[in-house]
């Protein structure tokens, strides 16, 4: 007879994502994972293959549900610098208020934790960075076309700078920086790019 699952694997993965996002993979014990997901160890291992594989799946879920939609929206926006401002405004709002305030970004948390030593995690982090930088570069290309940027600004370098600024926003928000100070930093940085 086939083994019938008596739980929702996607719901378990969402709960694991929240646990790892808030605490990191190294800090979350297997007992924490069992408590957060509601699974027993045998179900956990049979479904996900273990804590590290569950972390990989949770990080991929985070990227798919949280990061990538924001990147697509930014790249498809078509307004240039206002789209970049709105991207950062949304990022800051999520990091500084609501249910996930103070959690930072699961990706940035992985950069800071021991997770980044895992080659699969490292590949996911590198791909995330490329997607973030490319979305910013696309928005800056629109800004250049529309005369919103200084003619001497190298958009590729500016996109890399803004990607690093996004990491800084995530890091500072996790350590309690307030939304207004983060927004001022973003506004001042974008002013340096203007025509």
Tell me roughly what share of residues is in helical segments.
over 70%
Largest sheet: none
Alpha plus pi helix count: 9
Look at the helices and sheets and give the structural class: mainly alpha
For the termini, the CA-CA separation is: 69 Å
What does this structure look like?
The protein has 195 residues and is mostly helical. It contains 9 helices and no strands. It has helices at residues 9-23, 30-37, 41-48, 51-76, 81-96, 106-112, 119-145, 155-174, 179-193. Helix 7 (119-145) crosses helix 8 (155-174). The mean pLDDT is 94.
Jot down its keywords.
9 helices, 195 residues, 73% helix, mainly alpha, single chain
Draw up the topology in text.
Blueprint: H1 9-23, H2 30-37, H3 41-48, H4 51-76, H5 81-96, H6 106-112, H7 119-145, H8 155-174, H9 179-193
Quick synopsis:
This protein has nine helices and no strands. It is mainly alpha-helical and 195 residues long. The mean pLDDT is 94.
